[in-house]
Amino acid sequence: MLNFLQELFASMRANKLRTILTGFSVSWGVFMLMVLLGAAGGLNSSVMDNFAQNATNSMAIYGGNTSEPFDGLPVNRRIELQESDVDMLLNHFPQISAYSRAKNMWGIEATVGSEYANISVAGVDADYVLIRPKKILKGRALNALDDRLARKSIILSEASVDQLFHNDEPIGQTVLIKGISFTVVGVYENEGGGLYGMMPYVTMQQTISNGNTTIDAFNFIVDGVTTRQDSEAFQKQIREVLARSKRFSPTDQSAVWVWDRLGNYLQTRMIFSAISLFIWLIGIGTLTAGVVGVGNIMIVTVRERTKEFGIRKAIGAPPSAILRMVLSESLATTFLFGLLGMLIGSGVLKLVQMIAGGMAAPTQQDEMPNIGMTILTNMHVDLRIVLSACAVLIISGLIAGYLPAKRAMKMKPIEALTAK
Amino acid sequence: MLELQGIHKTYDNGALLHVLKGIDLAVEEGEFVSIMGASGSGKSTLLNIIGLLDNYDEGTYTLDGKLMKNLSEKEAALMRSRYIGFIFQSFNLINFKTALENVALPLYYQGVPRRKRNELAMEYLDKVGLKDWATHLPTELSGGQRQRVAIARALIARPKLVLADEPTGALDSTTSQEVIDLLREVNRTEGMTMIIVTHAPEIARQTDKIIHITDGLISHVEDLKHA
Ligand SMILES: Nc1ncnc2c1ncn2[C@@H]1O[C@H](COP(=O)(O)OP(=O)(O)O)[C@@H](O)[C@H]1O
Ligand SMILES: [Mg+2]
To answer: How far apart are CA A229 and CA A246, in angstroms?
Structure first.
């Protein structure tokens, strides 16, 4: 075996340039495959992460402006959601299993002693956490008791806490907003940072809001909706019910905005599986080109080395030795250079991940984080992909070498010897 | 050692070319035989058939008592490996291997371990006077030196039969004589059977027997030993 390897590397060394040229196409193929698959993986986990943060069977409705005239009413009429609309929808659709109203107040001044910060506060119901879960870093989330008693509880984002409390313990402390004291009960992680806070909707209505019953969003979870068809049908029903009571055309898509997370999720997942498939195809295509390249060059090699094989045969090399020699040269070339491509590929993926990780900038609350950067940060190399790439390499090396090897083996020694 | 009876060989490259037209030849063990003849008379063809590098169409060829007919490539390779050493006009060394590695190569195909292989190769290089050139590539050697490396390679597996196709064809007369002296000595000391094809009468005269080939047939045999 050692003998054999020495013999193999001697002949690979002797044909350095050719070996390198051959190898390069394979390195390139594997490199492309790695990077593409890495990107695909990154894309997938970014998007799926993003969905994982939110209950997938949730929907949200926001007010909008009409774009179709209805019943003699003009276009561009503002449609606001009211608390009463929520009650009506809950009556109408028993399959809504959890819900939260939301009212946003942007950039209001909060003070703690001499520290102050302009934070954006959302008033929500306790079930909000079911619909858009937030990671609680300290203390607790808002709960049903806060709602029932309309307690002046508030939870703050990390950045708000940093600004208001520095390194002091915030839990149990008081924050002054519009002259009213609120107790900090929890600290939550807000993707992308930012100065935010949340308090019970009812508390907000009784304290710092203007008290009107207009809400900004109605978030809810629907049971029994699992397919895109289901969710579209449900969306249509919601629009019809709202259209009837708020007097707009049921086909008017902009009168109210419906954010359908499940439908989105399913659609996105479909798009991404298509992209993944496409990327696989490109990757495999590139690799195939590499393999065909190796095969071609092996054919040339065999032709160039015909005389050498003739000499080897004359001095007693059996046909199997020649076959083994060509095959293993092809295999070794493919494998070594494939490995190189793989190393460079994972190196590049790691590097991109590091650089992009540093650049993923903070973004607004509840918005999608900078998706491009997240994809890059999430780029990774799956061990399974590496292993299957290895398998592909071995098989391709054998395929690429087989025909040329067979040819070299079959040649009559005298023909090989007299070949020029 | 070997016997040929009614050997015919026809090449078919579009047109049929009848090269050997019934060769009858016997070579005894330990004989040093030369083959002479005009260019194109079929000397190389004959030698290649004897060396199992090529097949023949008609007749019988027995080597060491075994009939060499319809051998598979594998069987032929085994026979070559065991019985036959080749020396060519153009040396046919492998360019990217050192003198030592070239000499050792036949033993590789016999499964001899590397250390043993290199030891023997060094011994044979010494025999042909090239011990100091062991690590040189063929391109760094003169024609005479290359042919001596090739001879060492042909001998290392201790073949019973050494075939040389115009071994001195590419060498000047002094070097030619050195090569022939070397072959003669090996023939004498080791008792290897040798068949060499040559154009040079002064070389042929130093062998035991000259076989003259004319147009694919043996025209006459000169027995120099018993003359
Ligand atoms: N592989 C081949 N295919 C066709 N013709 C060949 C082949 N080898 C040799 N010949 C022809 O056979 C004849 C004898 O060749 P060869 O045995 O090499 O002659 P010599 O060695 O006596 O000069 C020549 O005419 C040569 O052209
Ligand atoms: Mg000839």
So the answer is: 25
CA B102 / ligand 2 centre spacing (Å): 24
Closest CA to B150 of B193, B203, B89: B89
Residue B43 Cα to ligand 1 midpoint, Å, equals: 8
**Residues A279 and A39: beta-carbon distance below 8 Å:** yes
Query: For residue A326, which of A400, A395, A397, A401 has the smallest C-alpha distance?
Result: A401
Element at B197 (helix H, strand E): strand B193-197
As residues whose CB is below 5 A from the ion ligand 2, the structure lists: B 44
**Mean pLDDT within B26-34:** 95
Judged on CB neighbours under 10 Å (0-12, 13-18, 19+), B14 is exposed
Confidence at residue A306, expressed as pLDDT on a 0 to 100 scale: 87
Pocket lining: B78 vs ligand 1, CB cutoff 6 Å: no
pLDDT in tens, B160-202: 999 999 999 888 989 899 889 999 999 999 899 999 999 999 9
pLDDT at B145: 94
Strands A135-139, A174-177: pairing is unpaired
Task: Give me the phi and psi of B15, to 5 degrees please.
Answer: -95, 145
Which residues of chain A are modeled with pLDDT < 70? 1-2, 46-55, 356-382, 386, 420
Q: Which residue of chain A comes nearest to B96, CA vs CA?
A: A14
Please name the amino acid found at residue A319. P
Report the percentage of chain A scoring pLDDT > 70. Answer: 89
How far is the CA of A290 from the CAs of A24, A295, A305, A324, B183, in angstroms? 8, 9, 22, 21, 51
| Gap between the Cα atoms of A411 and B108, Å rounded | 21
- List the beta strands (DSSP E) in A140-266: 153-157, 174-177, 180-189, 196-200, 214-215, 217-222, 256-260
Domain boundaries, chain B: 30-58+69-223
**Residue B31: half-sphere exposure toward Cβ, Cα within 13 Å:** 21
What residue type is assigned to position A245 of the chain?
Answer: S
The closest of A364, A356, A375 to A47, measured between CA atoms, is A375
For A39, the token pair is: 């990107």
pTM of the shown model: 0.67
CATH architecture classification, B30-58+69-223: 3-Layer(aba) Sandwich (3.40)
